[in-house]
Amino acid sequence: MKTVKLSVNKACVAICAVLVLLSLFLLSVVYYLTQNTFALVCVLLYVASVIGCMAIFLTFIRRKLTLFSDALCKLLDDMMSADQAPPQYTEEENLFYKIQHRLSRLYEVLRESKSSIAKERADLQELISDISHQVKTPIANLKMLDATLLDQTVTPEKQREFLVAMDSQLDKLDFLMQALIKTSRLETGVISLEPQPQAIYDTLAAALGGILLHAEQKKIAVTVDCPETVTAAHDRKWTTEALFNILDNAVKYTPEGGKIHVAVVSLEMYVKIDISDTGIGIPEQHQGTIFKRFYRESSVHDAPGIGIGLYLAREIITRQGGFIRVSSELGTGSTFSVFLPHS
Fold it and tell me: What's the CATH number for 196-341?
């Protein structure tokens, strides 16, 4: 059985035809029953007014449907181009308004989704560019050392020197991969932080344990002022990682014989951990960019590191409801203040 598809125009014509036929039938019945011309004229006027009202109503509905169809097509075109802002509707609450409002909301969601995808794509391209830049140098060094060992005859002492250099480059690649794995797992939510009320003393002790040997080798005095009773809501494992990265930078950029002081203070809403050093300091114009991924000052490019420690530290602290501030002067030193929410 075939289904007949009627357009709006054909439907209006069909309704009008049915009304005319019914009107003629009604007039015939009235005239047959009354044989009164005046009654027939009254019924005729009534039928004409009903048909006129119906025609006006159908014209109004058809116009509304046409306007709605045009607005819907325009909105869908805008949604496909995603270049224009969604139209604003100020009509009263009715069926057409509800449909248009929901389509506008869908349009906004699609725009936000497209913007988010574009941002993620740009971030991914930036990450790939950063990784390739960081990996390029150690791989080039490894190839050069390997080619020298394969193509030239070198003494055992020189072989050992080359192998030590290769081991250093492999350590750098391993550190880079481990840092990237931690960062990607943290950013993608594979690893979730679970802040719990616990003592800062033990977390800070674990972080300090990773830098004390290096500090002793550089004859850097490390002092700590941390009450054992101070607690904050934090994930111990990841907060240890964040504090270690800041402390490691302090040791790395503090000259031999310098000092590092760690002070923990309990404030009204936060627990503040100040990590101060007597290192080379950070220029004021660069203090806002040191937390970017792979960012390193041009003056410290010869120092070991890849510029991801502070970025990872800020991500860890921020995801626990805290934040990091830095104050520094060139040639005097730096103070990194870590704020963690009170437990």
Answer: 3.30.565.10
